[in-house]
Amino acid sequence: MTTEELKNLKANQTVDARGTACPGPLLAAKKAVGDIESGEILEILSSDEGTKHDIPKWCEKMEHEFLGIVEEDSYSRLFLKKA
Asked: Of the listed 1, 22, 36, 69, which one is catalytic?
């Protein structure tokens, strides 16, 4: 997806993990993905740089579709579609 498409994407659930260090955002994402249905979108807000690597790797392992990252001023918005 393009950055513009991601900016306009409506997530079914958003996890705000800003201010937590690795592996906090990944653990929050793992918990939240259990609360959504297959095919729904999860948005993770994170200020931890490691999250940009952890979430895509975890998505690949769990067969969730990683949709991309939108960079904001002091944090990142990561999107995935649950398998």
From this structure: 22
